[in-house]
């Protein structure tokens, strides 16, 4: 009997490669999100320093032009926060898309592996039957040849 060969092995190999690629994409997406979160935390730290400086100026006495400069700076900071949060939101959306793709590929791979296991079990069953038939044929030939030869 010929060696077992899964009929969809090349497709299974593709699904395994796609799964590996999707896992790498998911890790990269997570790293991007973490980077954006670090940037947001840095922005918040700088903003806290900006607020402390502003409060110190208010305590000492502030000129109108300084108030205007701080107002512009605060507005720019809040706009930067909004942009950064949008980046994070977009990266989260991308991560979720990749996660769904990964789940789909993993499901397809598992289905193919179950089919492979089923085909292997059928192959093993057929091989066992073939071996049993060969043994039966051998024994019946031996018995027959022993009776005629004796």
Question: How does this model look, in words?
Answer:
The structure is a single chain. With 150 residues, the protein is an all-alpha fold. The protein is built from two helices and no strands. It has helices spanning 9-60, 64-149. Helix 1 runs antiparallel to helix 2. The chain is rod-shaped and about 125 Å long. The chain starts with 8 loop residues before the first helix and ends with a helix. The mean pLDDT is 93.
Which stretches are poorly predicted, pLDDT < 50 over at least 5 residues?
A: none
Distance between the termini: 34 Å
Largest sheet: none
Number of strands: 0
C-alpha Rg, in Å?
35 Å
- Structural class by SSE content: mainly alpha
Order of helices and strands: HH
Strand content: under 5%
CA-based shape:
rod-shaped
Helical proportion, percent range: over 70%
Output the number of helix runs.
Answer: 2
Overall average residue pLDDT = 93
Note the topology.
Blueprint: H1 9-60, H2 64-149
In brief, what are we looking at here?
It contains 2 helices and no strands. It is mainly alpha-helical and 150 residues long. Helix 1 (9-60) runs antiparallel to helix 2.
Features:
mainly alpha; 2 helices; rod-shaped; 150 residues
